[in-house]
Amino acid sequence: MAEKLEQEEIAGTTPEAEIELPAEEVCFQSSDVERMLAAIAEKNRLHEEMADRLKRLQADFDNFRRRTRQEKEELSGIVAEEIIAKLLPVLDNFERALSTAAKADAVSLRSGVEMIYRQLFQSLEQLGLTPVKAVGESFNPQHHEAVMRVEDAEQTDGLIVDELQKGYMVRNKVIRPSMVKVVSNN
């Protein structure tokens, strides 16, 4: 015990010093206590109100996410239905061509396939598909993919001389760039 008192004296604190408080700080009037209790009750009420608001806001956000996801799925389904509806006549014509392929000669079969190709291309154009222009154009890395280079002193650098695979855009957005052969005289 003596050691503890010595340590406390060294540290500058004694048990008596901790207990002593000025009289005005210890004594509260009942009106002060009531005001503090009222303030605490008001803070608790505000806290509960904010917690309730937060819970409602979280529930609203969860509902919004669920609704948005459902709307996306429905829209995706509608788009798929539209595309399929436009392509069904093409599918029907392919079936007709295949059923008559054994009886038809090569010229009439080719003619039928060309008609089906035009029909398919028109259906895709109605959905916003356009081919990327390539041959005779200047190379544009946003629309073209250079897979071969050729030297030709008579042509300007960067000119596309051949298209190896056609590129396509949908509503001015490239969905597949054209694979091209480009003049490079370097």
What does this structure look like?
There is one protein chain. The protein contains five helices and six strands; from the N terminus they run αααααββββββ. It has helices spanning 2-11, 15-19, 23-26, 30-100, 106-126; strands at residues 129-131, 144-150, 160-165, 168-170, 173-176, 178-183. It has a three-stranded antiparallel beta sheet with strand order 1-4-5. A three-stranded mixed beta sheet has the order 2-6-3, with no helix packed on it. The longest helix has 71 residues, at 30-100. The chain is elongated and about 110 Å long. The termini are far apart.
Give a quick set of tags describing it.
three-stranded mixed sheet, alpha+beta, Nucleotide Exchange Factor Grpe, Chain A, domain 2, 2 domains, 186 residues, elongated, 5 helices, Hemagglutinin Ectodomain, Chain B
Mean pLDDT: 81
- Gyration radius from CA atoms, angstroms: 41 Å
Work out the number of β strands: 6
> In oligomeric terms, what are we looking at?
single chain
Largest sheet: 3 strands, antiparallel
> In terms of structural class, how would the helical and strand content be classed?
alpha+beta
Termini separation comes to 96 Å
What is the fourth-level CATH superfamily of the largest domain? Answer: GrpE nucleotide exchange factor, coiled-coil domain
The assigned CATH architecture of the largest domain is Alpha-Beta Complex
Unreliable stretches (pLDDT < 50, length at least 5) are: none
Number of helical runs? 5
Name the helicity range. Answer: 55-70%
- CATH class division of the largest domain: Alpha Beta
Can you tell me the number of structural domains? 2
- CATH topology description of the largest domain: Hemagglutinin Ectodomain, Chain B
Q: What gross morphology would you assign?
A: elongated
What series of H and E elements makes up the topology? HHHHHEEEEEE
Strand portion: 15-25%
Strand order of the largest sheet: 1-4-5
